[in-house]
């Protein structure tokens, strides 16, 4: 491995967060963008090679990160070295989706979009710390407004809400709605 | 560079409908997260054009699917069933000659379905993301888990006795009763107000407190004195506005009733 790849490996090991392109550039001011990309690629191949390693270099929302390989997740979790978060139900994910994109949002709006009562789901999401009350709406009854939390971002491995897919990136985005114009 | 993995476009759950020869659909309702989910599934699975939904057919299939539901879990579905039936009826009504004036009764439903489909796709993305994340552990990631149990307590007798000693020493002497002198001085305040009223016909309540070191007790004393003087008819107190100035005047010699 080249020296630059080794440097990146050492930095990725030392940092407890994903390293962005800028972080990597700061490690070696003389390297060009291509050279950095080459070093990252070399490191990625190094970890991938013949499945000889228990960790791999993964491109995540915040940049690059060394993560343990999924086949060892069960053993590590069973040894209580880390706790895996419980899986979220479809209803919980849909509700989170609405809140993430519409926040701050009142319960009535979530129910309008999902077509079901969401009282129970909201409570369990709040208990898990994924959402919280962020304020009250103006108007009748001044309903509570919900928003997502830092725990929500951590659960998804996101650095910020900006890293959620943009609405235009979704396959069912606004294209069909535009066609609906004539209807 | 693309930081994000490709957005997964697949639905959250595999189609829970199994096409059979005579019964066209067997729907496991618990696989759906709500009426919109079920409706969207019926439409997408049969490759129906969402801008031209055969509402009668879909309404029937929807009703068949929710037939097995108990009343409690059906509430959300029943509302949608009613909506579908209303649209079905509206579609049967004759349309005006001028097609431009005709508003498709399905439009609102279609808008909601498409909006919901977006959310369902997002939910799928969130699920994939969370799943990906939950199988891979970074360095030094502190999971939001329960605190580990504290280690078992190890003490010997001398530690215990020393602790008892400390507690006993720290215990306060029993207090039987403590008399706090009441710092109210109503008589003094009454004398002051009477003296002031001999000089002036009208007085603001706040003028009673001219020094800076006023205590709460002083204000209460003055207020009690004032109320007492007003009650006995020595002076009159008026307040033009709520929380406004409190004006003290000499009582009129001939009080009007």
Write structural notes for this entry.
- The complex is a heterodimer of chains A (183) and B (257).
- Chain A has helices at 3-14, 21-27, 33-48, 73-78, 90-102, 107-114, 119-127, 150-156, 175-179; strands spanning 55-60, 63-68, 105-106, 131-136, 144-148.
- Chain A is of the alpha+beta class and 183 residues long.
- A 3-stranded antiparallel beta sheet of chain A has the order 3-5-4.
- In chain A, helix 1 (3-14) crosses helix 3 (33-48).
- The radius of gyration of chain A is 21 Å and the shape is elongated.
- Chain B is mostly helical.
- In chain B, strand 2 and strand 3 form a beta hairpin.
- At the A-B interface, strand 1, strand 2, helix 5, helix 6 and helix 8 of A face helix 1, helix 3 and helix 4 of B.
Sketch the topology of chain A as an H/E string, one letter per element. HHHEEHHEHHEEHH
The SS-based structural class of chain B is mainly alpha
Order of strands across the widest beta sheet of chain B?
A: 1-3-2
* Major pleated sheet of chain A: 3 strands, antiparallel
What is the radius of gyration of chain A? 21 Å
Oligomer state equals heterodimer
Work out the number of β strands of chain B: 3
Percent strand of chain B:
under 5%
Q: List how many beta strands of chain A DSSP finds.
A: 5
Instruction: Note the beta-strand portion of chain A.
Output: 5-15%
Net shape of chain B: flat
Q: Distance between the terminal alpha carbons of chain A, to the nearest Å? A: 61 Å
Unreliably modeled segments of chain B: 1-24
Please tell me how large the radius of gyration of chain B is.
Answer: 41 Å
